[in-house]
Amino acid sequence: MVDLIKKLALLDGTSGGEDAVREFILGEISPYCTCKTDPLGNIIAEKKGKKAPAKRILLDAHMDEVGLIITSVTEDGFLRFKTLGGINTSALMFRAVRINGNSGGVISGKPIHLMHGEEQEKLPEADSLYIDIGAASKEETLSAVSPGDRAVIVSDFTVSGNKLISKALDDRIGCAILIKLLREYDEYDYTVTFTVQEEIGLRGAKTATYSVRPDAAIIVESTTAADVAGVPDDKTVCKLGRGAAVSFMDRATAYDREYYNAALDSGIAVQSKAAVAGGNNAGSVHLSRGGVRTLAISVPCRYIHTNSSVADLNDVNAAFELCRYMIKYIADDK
User: How many domains does the chain have?
Assistant: First the structure.
């Protein structure tokens, strides 16, 4: 599983630019299922199992990661940009970036030694930052980069004991879990979608779910863990090493209470996500057509949406086992 997550996480695939991730996933799953790509770029994979379930079951993970999109080039050759997804300015300053999978640069702004007074006491506005690719003119920059091109913050992939450290663990971990599921689990029929553009509005899941027409859905995600220094226990949301996290509600979805309770009672390492915050593809999925009963299974992740997100392999394995358990639970029509 670690090697698979590493390969996925180090691919570049911002919202609307998931091509490399999609091609990799198709190569991994094609021998194990019937799959197609829809007009928006979602992968829809049909797994034929030994038995037909009582309900049509969908499992979903999104392929895209947060990143940047180039909006313009200054006369001096610097790149202006907007963020794709929620990235705090503190995660941007002086970070190395990769544009279109190859061109390098660094995010910069006004040097600290030229700041005065209040400027030194607060983060700059994201709109004041730029990407420096080392070009001397607008013309030189435009020979390599154009408005509309996408960039990611560069990272390595590090394994420290059970901890995985990398960019894009949201949601390449979910993608890895579902790839492994398609390879190994065939007790029942089910459908898996690998969707696009989650970070900019849950868009791919909306169209994919409409096509699949599920009765029940499991969203496989990464979620914020705040179990770090200085955060009181009642604000930690969820904790690394305590198992998969399941939500009773977030800002986009009130989850199916029966499925939520079933997950907690599964006997697998599971924790309740102790916050009504954020959102994921469930916000689109559960509203599709006449409504879809939905559960989110998430892997806790510290420093999410940065180039140094941290997850625990034990939680990844627990999330995989919980997906298997919930497929059977839903398929048996309990």
Answer: 2
